[in-house]
Amino acid sequence: MSLLLDTHVALWWLAGSTRLKRKLREQIATSNCAISVACIWEIAIKHRLGKLAVSPQIFRDEMRNAGAAIISISDIHAIALGSLPEGHGDPFDLLLLATARVEGMRLVTADTTLLAYARDVGGISVASA
Length: 129
What we know:
The chain is an alpha/beta fold. The protein has one domain (3-128): 5'-nuclease (Rossmann fold, 3-Layer(aba) Sandwich). It has helices at 7-15, 22-30, 37-48, 56-65, 75-82, 91-103, 112-121, and strands at residues 3-5, 33-36, 69-71, 106-109, 125-128. Strands 3-2-1-4-5 form a five-stranded parallel beta sheet, sandwiched between helices. Helix 5 crosses helix 6 (91-103). The longest helix has 13 residues, at 91-103. The chain is globular. It starts with a strand and ends with a strand.
């Protein structure tokens, strides 16, 4: 199954961070991986606010260089987001969940709140980073 990386997981992977378990780092390195344009958007916002040093262009380019696909946000993703139940307020997280569901991918995140929400909703493949 292809992996959809949450923003922090993609950043940790690019940086070679030990926050990612060795087994997961190997899985990312040997799997078909992708990020959503929502991740680039999130990086752009945090970079503009001075909360993140990496620019969205460098992040995008490094992910591409590492072999990750970039998934555009489509109307199908937006419609799928609208069908998710209440209980999680972060629109970036919800868009990632909707994208993973629509694209048949496993979302990889370290966000315990998002993991719990996804498991409660069901029908979305998630993995803990």
